[in-house]
Amino acid sequence: MIFSMARLDRVKNITGLVECYAKNTKLRELVNLVLVAGYNDVKKSNDREEIAEIEKMHGLMKEYNLDGQFRWLSSQTNRARNGELYRYIADKRGVFVQPAFYEAFGLTVVEAMVSGLPTFATCHGGPAEIIEDGVSGFHIDPYHPDKVASLLVDFFQRCKEDPTYWEEISKAGLQRILDRYTWKIYSERLMTLAGVYGFWKYVSKLERRETRRYLEMFYILKYRALVKSIPLAIDEEH
């Protein structure tokens, strides 16, 4: 199974994953698709963007006749149940796919990897740092869904021929999280940063206004250019 869990926002590209899956005959022969996202019924949502995504999802289900191959569950608020979902998919030797156009960090990516799920995640944003491509998971480009589908097909075919390959990626993903993203590591880094900031503030004697000017200068010189380099989703309606 292919599994994904996210808000039903356009940037999360969940409907894009469904369309990517639906259009690839070989992928549909190999695996089923399971999603946990938003509401199933437009009447339950008050968010315009989510309503549009719900309608699009139902349209894709009808257009590609996904009955029997696709299961769409509404968002789950029970954390223990969500954890069991990850583990259930892992027990069935499935994968986790995070297809967002951009993801600041990627909490679900960490959750999936620590559950032992081989993970395919967007190359735009935080997941590109979390995953070592081809070693502890795979980077995917949501702007090229055909390549994403082909990568998934290749993975499942290889696992079919060599079952140890699934275990290899699964273990490498778990080890990556244990090495880089545990609460112990996070807290130690946070304390270090707090110490560095405290020392800098103590020795600098900068007032708040001067600090703000410094940060604005840093943004203009460095980060504004980076923001422009991030690709945006193209609105198909325009």
UniProtKB/TrEMBL annotation:
Any single Pfam family the record assigns to this protein: Glycos_transf_1
Location of the Glycosyl transferase family domain: 2-155
Domain of life, per lineage: Eukaryota
Record field: transmembrane: none
GO biological processes: sucrose metabolic process
Similarity remark: Belongs to the glycosyltransferase 1 family. Plant sucrose synthase subfamily.
Record's protein name: sucrose synthase
